[in-house]
Amino acid sequence: MENQALTKQLLENYYKGFAEKANWEDTIADDFQYVGGDMTNTQPVVGKQAYVEIIKRFSQRFQAMRVKQMIIDGDKASVIGNYDFQFPNGQRINGNVSENWTVKNGKLQSLTLYFDTLTFMTNLK
């Protein structure tokens, strides 16, 4: 139960800051592993700073985000995030992203995302 409470607290802190686009970085492990954005490449991007840079770019595309659902099982969690995207081509889209997390040593250790990458990338052009 202790792992579950820690996982929940980390995710609540992360998503609060993430939605505000500030103060979420402290929840991330230094050797964080991220898979997402290109589901044809499942090799993780490793490192907190690499993930921070990815999120700097991604944050330019969403206007708002909300957690629709959070399921926690010890040091693992699955979150459905709902995003209001605005793209450079003027297109606005609301979409869900499946976000699967692991926690280790008191930090968020890894994240794997699943979402409609084709629509996302098409609208970046």
Characterization of the model:
This protein is α+β, with helices and mostly antiparallel strands and 125 residues long. It has one domain (2-124): Nuclear Transport Factor 2, Chain: A (Roll), CATH 3.10.450.50. 30% of the residues lie in helices and 43% in strands. It is built from 3 helices and 6 strands, in the order αββαββββα. The chain has helices spanning 2-20, 48-58, 117-124, and strands at residues 28-35, 45-46, 62-73, 76-86, 92-104, 107-114. It has a 6-stranded mixed sheet. A hairpin with a 2-residue loop joins β5 and β6. The longest helix is centred in the N-terminal third of the chain and has 19 residues, at 2-20. The protein is globular, with a radius of gyration of 14 Å. 14% of the residues are buried. The mean pLDDT is 91. GO terms for molecular function: isomerase activity. Residues 22-108 form the SnoaL-like domain. It holds the Pfam family SnoaL_2. This is Ketosteroid isomerase-related protein. Keywords: Isomerase.
